[in-house]
Amino acid sequence: MNFLIKDKVALVTGANRGIGKAIVESFLQHGARKVYLAVRDIKSTQALCQQYGDKVVTLALDVSDAESIKQAVLLTQDVDVVVNNAGVLEIADPLADNAEVALQHEFDVNVLGLIRIAKAYANTLTSKGSSAFVQLNSVASIKNFTPFTTYSASKAASYSVTQGLKDVFAPKGIQVLSVHPGPIKTDMGDKAGFDVADSVESVSEGIVAALAEGEFHLFPDSVAKHFEGAYQSFADGIINAEQGAE
Of 27, 95, 164, 218, which residue has the fewest beta carbons closer than 10 angstroms? Predict the structure, then answer.
């Protein structure tokens, strides 16, 4: 199963900055007909709207608010590809005073937000015959980084959910892509203290290519590709294998 961005309608959560903004721009550069900018603050997309005109449409959507998602779905029935990019990161090791609060916040957005978005758009994407669902996970989904233990745990959970989505969406003609960036130059990357980070375009352009090639995993940047090399045999033998296969 593969999916070409050209002439398609996309929705990107967290589209106002960082990786989300880069995804919007890459999709449009590769011929997307329209991109919905799904954000909590509709004023935050003014620059994108001025630059791309009627090729982009801003709508209020908070992945932690089921009602806002419901209202957004009603306005976006023409969507062919959903990119769930919105996420949060807290700095908390396993014994940190804020570990429980951090984990609850990250799970609400990074895991339950994914489930909310996937459930809300399942019927819309199924109706297209050929569609796609993209989830921004992380290399932290397969390796715990101690200062970001709660974030790593939330991304491990979202990666597991993404695997389940692949299985339930495949019979419906929905291609699922799990994206696993390493250090990327974004506000979140700055918060994490990354001294060296790849560009957001490494992720956005990688998504376009991976969808066209029908891939499930994308490890887009230089650090992520190091993970991919070590992880590939496990992914091929376990994650990508048919359920019940010997």
Answer: 95
**Does this model's pTM top 0.85?**
yes
Domain that includes residue 46, residue range: 9-233
How does strand 9-13 pair with strand 81-84?
parallel
pLDDT digit string (tens) for the chain, length 246 residues? 899 999 999 999 999 999 999 999 999 999 999 999 999 999 999 999 999 999 999 999 999 999 999 999 999 999 999 999 999 999 999 999 999 999 999 999 999 999 999 999 999 999 999 999 999 999 999 999 999 999 999 999 999 999 999 999 999 999 999 999 998 866 654 555 555 568 999 999 999 999 999 999 999 999 999 999 999 999 999 998 876 544
Asked if residue 91 is part of any domain, the answer here is: yes
If one counts the domains in the chain, the total is 1
Is 3 among the domain residues?
Answer: no
Integer CA distances (angstroms), 75 to 58, 104, 124, 131, in order: 11, 30, 11, 18
State the burial class of residue 84 (Cβ atoms within 10 Å of its Cβ: 0-12, 13-18, 19+).
buried
CATH number reported for the structural domain that contains residue 200 in this entry: 3.40.50.720
Tell which residue, 60, 78, 106, has the closest CA to residue 8.
Answer: 78
Which two three-digit tokens encode residue 192? 């994490």
